[in-house]
Amino acid sequence: MPDTIFDKILRGEIPSHKLYEDDQVLAFLDIAPLSFGHALLIPKERAQTLDQLSDESSAALGRVLPRLCRALKKLTGVSAFNVLENNESLAHQAVPHVHFHIIPKPDEASGLGVRWLAGKLDHARGAELAAQVVKELAG
Ligand code: 5GP
After folding, report:
1. Fewest Cβ atoms nearer than 10 Å: which of 55, 78, 131, 133?
2. What spacing in Å lies between the alpha carbon of 138 and ligand 1's midpoint?
3. What is the pTM of this model?
4. What residues line ligand 1, using a CB cutoff of 6 Å?
5. DSSP designation for 130
6. Each residue's pLDDT tens digit in the chain (139 positions)?
């Protein structure tokens, strides 16, 4: 996997406003925030998409994410927020290293805007997929 801008941040080669670091993860402020306090949480493990990540890194992210959200809520004074994680460029991933965005939503105009084109579930296809996923995850 080629180097990304986040590898440079992890190595301290380019500066960032660091929020948290341990052996497995790093959190820092996004350089182009959608709102004040917009933060990124990344694993130190190099993986492009979430499905490629080890259980160990996944657990570390899961442990830190709610704690980071709590700190940002408290210190920005903004209670509403979105957590976003994009995978591949079609899904708006610009930096090919797993990262969770934590984005305070202070008002309608700032923070994350979502275009949510809700469809209607095809229950027959849904039941088939659910059975397949259950089997896949049990295997
Ligand atoms: P993506 O679209 O891949 O989910 O989001 C990548 C995020 O990384 C963007 O929100 C972008 O502003 C942020 N970003 C890109 N380069 C840098 C950088 O050099 N420093 C920081 N702090 N954030 C960056």
Report:
1. 55
2. 36
3. 0.97
4. 5, 14, 16, 28-32, 40, 86, 92-95
5. H
6. 789 999 999 999 999 999 999 999 999 999 999 999 999 999 999 999 999 999 999 999 999 999 999 999 999 999 999 999 999 999 999 999 999 999 999 999 999 999 999 999 999 999 999 999 999 999 8
